[in-house]
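Annex B, item 7. Sequence and structure tokens for protein A, then protein B.
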Amino acid sequence: MAEVTTPLTSFDAVTGFLAANAVHYGLSFLQAVVILLVGFWVAKRLSRFVHKTLSRSPHFDATLKPLIESVVLWSVRIITIIAVLAQFGVQTASIIAVLGAAGLAIGLALQGTLQNIAAGTMLLVLRPFRNGDYVTAGSTVAGTVEEIGLFTTTLTNADGIYVCVPNNQIWGQPITNYSRNATRRMEITVGIALDDDLDAAMSALRQHVSDDQRVLGTPAPEIMVKQVSDSAVIVNVRVWSLLGNYWGLYWDLQRNVKETVEGVGCSLPYPTRTVMQVPTQTLPDAAQQRH
């Protein structure tokens, strides 16, 4: 005999089904919220811990600190989001596949941006310069490095002007770092008149640079004749100094070499030219002789 289902029985079944699912999905929702809050809290705390740990290390490069903090923060957040989606039965493998396909499409559309990211990554990994270094890249980029990001590098030029350069324009050019080495060589030239005492001038210059405490003894200073021109003997003064003393010593030597040379009776000649004027009355005679 067939069982007859009354409306009351159907209502009780639906109510029971809804109640069971409400409890199930309600618990899943609460678990997802808890996982999300705890995961984001852990990501922030872990990022702060990494920041404090790296800040305590004086030997760690400051240019890598923001990158490492961002990687730690977003890695934990992404893992948290995937765990939240798994609470609702979402297949995370399919999400990753969709994200990969979307990333490929976005990458093709943003090739220039990805080139800047690749160049920024190479700058951060290979570190041809760091924060505070004065660098030049090609003929257009020059300044003191303030920050190296994934997309751009910010600098301050010699006039105090803020400069923001895409990483690709820096990585694709020859990079000159003026702050990397602890010592630097400078060259200063001075002209001695042809009839002056060249040995006395060179000895005075050698003594002067030796007495300056900012000039390094190793490598030793060099005083040499660079060129003999029509009006002077060009003497080259080469000295090494610490990077912090370079510009002060350079400007002082530019002035002191003149006073040193003049102190031993030598002079700094000016280029001269002798002009000979042929008498005009001889010109017709010369013309007649040719005919």
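Protein B:
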Amino acid sequence: MKTTLDQWQVLRTIVEEGGFAQAAEKLHRSQSSVSYAVARLQEQLEVALLRQDGRRMRLTGEGEVLLREAAELLRHADRLERRAGSLRRGWEPELKVALDSLLPAEVMLAACGDFAGHCRETRLQLHEVVMSGADDALYQGDASLAVAGRVPQGFLGDWLLDAEFIACAAPGHRLHALGGELDSERLRGEVQVVLRDSGIRQPRDEGWLGAHQRWTVSQPETGIAMVEAGLAFGWLARHRIRRQLAEGSLKPLPLKSGAVRKASLHLVLAEPLSAGPACLYLADALRRAAADWRSGCAQ
């Protein structure tokens, strides 16, 4: 081979950082070594890869095509090295996990309790995310394992559980005073509380969003409190409002259709082939805890 992975890594860093000096700082190398690596790469390929655009260095058309393919090689090499590292080290010193806020607390606590009894040397970093926040964590390499509302493109995942959302309002809310079944027109004039997507890359909205006025919150507990206080209505996860439903502080809305909807949660490993023993153990612990939760809900 004429070229090396190091040369392609240098080229990618120049493009990402915008110039030779910035890339040198990022890679902790001298600027001359960075310039030489790219000059040598272009000489070996006999293709111009970079062009000056103001103060930034950008790819030529040929450079875009070639770096796109080289990026796959870099990802595979990184995966290979991390796999070797996990085999060499044994248990990972730290494990980063992204958990969708919809995951029942009982499942999370049971899995963490199981994990704590077997993986004492591994530190856990749990990041609670909403909707596409799990996608971002996986794409950016910020999580080795995620519980996500969907399996992001390019990944494989296992179904964990389904959660139900119930259209609710406080008993004293005027929607309950209307009588009879409610349609979408009756809902449009009321305040609906919705949960904000914590993702940045491709945030999305889910559920019915037909209300003219919406209050958007970052935490499910905040939305529940607002609905319970009579300030809004919303679709709330059944497993989070069991107490309120039993006590009567929240009451399901009599909708003609759509009163209940379901959402699924999936377990996704960022790199199944290079996952370390702690990551694999926590994944199995989550599967067991989810199965127990499903069994309890079915009784």
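Comment on protein B: The CA atoms of residues 38 and 172 lie 69 Å apart.
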